[in-house]
Amino acid sequence: MKITNVRAIYPTYRQPLAGWRPHLWQIVVQIETDRGVIGWGYGGGGEAALSIVNGHWAGLLAGRAVNGVADIQRIWDDLYQASLPYGRKGIAIMALSGVDLALWDLLGKAEGVPVYTLLGGKQKERIRAYATGNDTDWYAELGYTAHKFPHRWQGPADTERAVAMAEQARNRFGPQALLMVDCYMSWDGAVAREMARRLAPYQ
After folding, report:
1. Fewer Cβ within 10 Å of end Cβ, the chain: N or C?
2. Can you name the residues that pair with 65 across neighbouring β-strands?
3. How many structural domains is the chain composed of?
4. Is 55 a member of any domain?
5. What is the pLDDT of residue 33?
6. Rounded to whole angstroms, how far apart are CA atoms 57 and 47?
7. Is the pLDDT assigned to residue 123 strictly greater than 60?
8. Is 167 a member of any domain?
């Protein structure tokens, strides 16, 4: 099976969680093959990543074979080497993630197996899912036993807000639930230590 077309798009999103994650910046990568199998993947980097995928890597990928895991690994290595002009980090790696996921999706569809089979097989019969957001009542009603709430720290008053959210979640989900905080890179070392101290009672 050979790649015939690679295209990345940057969809327009409506922002549902203003102030938590101000922009999704995700791209969608589509890879088509001569067998009619299409793989899809999501990456980051927004419009800058589009330039890398559509303007540079699409040409490198055209005609490449994808018949097994080793082909995906070789393509990843080649694209990583080709990302040198972009610094081999940041936007380039976000773009590469979208291509990589599309290749795994493509191979799984072609082989008629879930991607976890390609990665070595199922490791567990069940995995624990968690809900992300602020609606603890709804998540508890849905049966989640793990919850991650968003918390962007901008000043000392936000500490109390995080404590209140943790207390609400612990009370609603019970003592055995897994609680997580997504600070989205807004905590420095001092804030992280203070938050660890203040949130410790809620485990």
Report:
1. C
2. 2
3. 2
4. yes
5. 98
6. 15
7. yes
8. yes
Residue ranges of alpha helices (H) inside 34-90 are 46-52, 58-61, 69-82
Q: Which tokens sit at 173?
A: 């989900």
Q: Are residues 141 and 84 in the same domain?
A: no
Q: What percent of the chain has pLDDT over 70?
A: 94
Contacts from 198-201 at CB under 8 Å and sequence distance 24+?
198/159, 198/162, 198/163, 199/162, 199/163, 199/166
Quote the pTM value. 0.74
State residue 44 phi and psi, 5-degree precision.
-110, -175
Distance CA 179, CA 187 (A): 18
- Amino acid type, 150: P
Residue 26 makes CB contacts below 8 A (sequence gap 6+) with 10, 11, 13, 42, 43, 44, 46
- 36-69 pLDDT per residue, tens: 999 999 999 988 999 999 999 999 999 999 999 9
Q: How confident is the model at residue 183 (pLDDT cuts 50, 70, 90)?
A: confident
Mean pLDDT, rounded, for 169-188: 85
Task: Show the domain range for 33.
Answer: 3-118
What's the CATH code of the domain at 31?
3.30.390.10
In a domain, 123, yes or no: no
Q: Is 30 left (phi over 0), alpha (psi -120 to 50) or beta?
A: beta
What backbone phi and psi angles, to 5 degrees, belong to 144?
Answer: -65, 140
**Could you give the 3-state DSSP secondary structure of residue 109?**
helix
